[in-house]
Amino acid sequence: MEAAGNDFGDNVIEMKRILAVDDNQDILDVLRYILEDSGYEVDTLSDGHDLFKQIEKSHPDLILLDIMLGDMDGRVLCKNVKQAAETHNIPVILVSASHNIADSMKQNGAPDDFIAKPFDMHVLLNSIERQLAAA
User: Pick from 71, 80, 78: which is nearest to 95 by CA?
Assistant: First the structure.
């Protein structure tokens, strides 16, 4: 008796990929743990210098981006991502302990959301789910 062929392609759920960018390795480790535990694939960067190379390499579905990145400003990187034709559709959530970005949320190149540090795990995951659903 010959086994019937299975087409698993219709039932495969593609895991969403998140790129987390933060210059604090402990925060990257916590984000990786939380996000992988929640079913996401996670890539991390410890600075913003290679952001566009990493985007091209991993094709993230969402970017978590710290504002204070050593010698770089995450708000500028966010604006660059949002204004580039090939990346403008990727949701970006800015994360910061020291900035109120209410005004920049209204500008061209603004992030899709903002989360203050220290962040609550549920607030983070809800924001990610909301942005991925809207993308």
Answer: 78
